[in-house]
Amino acid sequence: MTDFPTIFQNQYSCALLADAAFRGGISLDAAPSGLTPIDRAMKLAGPMVTIQANNDLVTILTGIHQASTGDVIVITNHSNDVALIGDLIATEASRKGIAGIIVDGLVRDTTELIEIGVPIFCRGVYPMGPLKLPQNLKGIGDIGLELTFGDTTVKSGDWAFGDADGVIFIGSLDLPELLKWAEQSYQREESLAAQIRSGISLGELLDLDTFMEERAANPQADFNQHIAKLGQAI
Question: Which residues are annotated as a binding site for substrate?
Answer without folding.
Answer: 86-89, 108
